[in-house]
Amino acid sequence: MSIYTYICFLSAISIILGFVTSKISDKIQSTIAITAAAMVGSLLLLLLGYLGWFQIDSIAIEVMQKIDFKSFLLDGILGFLLFAGALGIKIPVLRDQKWEITIFALFSTLASTFIVGALIYLVANLISLPIDFIYCLLFGALISPTDPIAVLAIIKNLRAPKRLSMQVEGESLFNDGVGLVIFVTIFTVAFSTEEMTASEVLHLFLHEAIGGILFGFVLGLVAHILISATDDGSLEILLTLTIPTAGFMLANMLGVSGALAMVVAGIMVGNWTRHRGFSEQSQRYLDHFWEMIDHFLNSLLFFLIGFALLLIDFTFKGFLMMLLAIPVCLIARYLSLWIPYSVLKFFRTYNPYTLKIMTWGGLRGGLALAMALSLPAKTVFVNGTDVKDIILIMTYAVVVFSILVQGVTIEKMIKKSKLVDPNREEYLTPSSHFDSHVSAHK
């Protein structure tokens, strides 16, 4: 059968699974329920194969390998999911949180990368698994950015305080693009046959990041002009599809960040074109159309995350690293947020649960898994174990813990945050305003 055939059947299964889980319990987010059900199914297939019954585990593994999770997400549906998420970002709220989101997306992602890399390097050596620091840093790069797909799928329906919600969602959308750029940069350094200079590394980073932002602006501008030139409601909606399809692919071909391009273009279309380019009919259908696409692709993606368990090669030391990676990533996440928050709190008063929710709500998902799967196999070995297998098992552990544990328990924190000054989730201190403070020093 063709890959398209597999995708069709898996899509149908994920939708039916979502329907069944919603009937069983409406208290659990559908994406969490789908992931859990797919993992149970994976374990069942492995057990049946081990017992010698049916022998369909090998068929399932072959299907997962043919789909190529990395290409399916990083080179495919990522553009749709990021564009759909960015459409809901409101510029007035984003402007109010611009300093926090910028700092979290740039500083916190980079800081977390190095903290995770350093801690993994230490714990790996403690269990006699001397992984080179560059590969520990590579794991830090792929696991540090919070996954906007997981975050938006789970957090946005819990109705957190508005400003707090924007911090979580805005950070996840932007640090996704930044994280991908950091990963590509470190990946190039780690696996390049020639040693790269510091200036070459910086040039690669800036080309990906700045190029992606500028290209996204161009995409948004072209889309705005085309949409404004027609009053056909159906055509206006169809024109938005050109951004995450041809636009996303063209960004990747140009060597710039397609992820950042989708976020920028989505914000432009969701704010500027929505009110100045779309007809009244299209304004009503825009969100509904993209919510359906987002829900469908999320169901399929989280189903594949659960079934990716079939691709994991478990070893004893890999199992130890899997257990150690979860607390390491949580510690790094907390420290990378605490540092800027300790400064920002002098200018703005935050909900007391902000740091806890930002830390525990920093979910990882298919994006980290796709980056881990993109690493070359059988290239670097440590004590006879493929480094890719070690990184993959750590990534899967963090992703599954993030979705099934953090995703389920985050709701309690958000409910508590609503009880604190419910009329004003965050407010400026009487004596200062962050923007005015910065302006005064210009």
Automatic annotation (TrEMBL):
It comes from the Bacteria. GO terms for molecular function: potassium:proton antiporter activity; sodium:proton antiporter activity. Coiled coil: none annotated. Residues 46-415 form the Cation/H+ exchanger transmembrane domain. GO terms for biological process: regulation of intracellular pH; sodium ion import across plasma membrane. InterPro entries: Cation/H_exchanger_CPA1, Cation/H_exchanger_TM. Keywords: Antiport, Cell membrane, Ion transport, Membrane, Sodium, Sodium transport, Transmembrane, Transmembrane helix, Transport. It is a multi-pass membrane protein. The chain crosses the membrane at residues 32-51, 72-89, 101-124, 133-154, 174-192, 204-227, 247-272, 293-312, 318-341, 353-375, 390-410. It is found in: Cell membrane. One of its GO terms (cellular component) is plasma membrane. Belongs to the monovalent cation:proton antiporter 1 (CPA1) transporter (TC 2.A.36) family. This is Sodium:proton antiporter. It comes from Gallibacterium salpingitidis.
